[in-house]
Here is the input.
Amino acid sequence: MNTPVLVHEDGRGVLTLTLSRPEVRNAMSLEMVLALRSALAEAEAGGRVRIVVLRGAGGHFCAGADLADMAAARLRLAEDPKAIEKVSAAFGELCVAFAQTGLATVALLEGSVMGGGLGLACVADVAVAATSAVFRLPETSLGLVPAQIAPFLVERLGPSQARRLAVCGGKLDAQAALALGLVHELHATGALDHALERVLGDILRCAPGAIAASKALVAQARLQPAAGMVAHAAELFSRAALGPEGVEGTTAFLERRAAAWAPR
Here is the structure.
């Protein structure tokens, strides 16, 4: 049986999760959603992984939800009136899990980046795209709602652009996605892996605990005024400065050497 997600962990603590249903441009089945959720949970619990990379097989990232799953859920409505809700919620929980993880996340985007695939791109800390990538939010053109990815679209793009994409059944080329801030870098398809390695190197030079704390602080800062965060931020900074990463990082800087967590 084909596995919907290929999992590879290297010696640096980089976990690559490859969406692997190339025959349907990696459309996201419930099985794929559960496999991604399980892989992330295992990475968080294991203590070895520092970065999670999301990418797609066969020249595409993800063509959105697998409509066959929705059709199957409709057939179960008589016995389970919430069947469609459960499928949708499973994907929403996946997005939340990736948005809230303390691990660094990178999305490598090429080909089709549609619907739920667009949502996954929005929850990644760093989104690196091919110049040929095409971004779509087709739900409203299908009579559907981008229900689970809407919060992450708003967070990434702001309410005005998120609303425009939803109202127009949005289609963006890579340059437009970069201009909106949906992605952070564009590269020719053949240069994507080289760009990924550079991004991974940058992240690996940063302390993993400091990354996790910084991500949590940024998430909190979205919801609270700066004045209300001063005391908490000061406590957080002091804890970091006095902790093992802070001591090692500042000592390494003064000694003009790489910190213990950095690649050699």
Notes: The chain has a mean pLDDT of 96. DSSP finds eleven helices and nine strands in the chain.
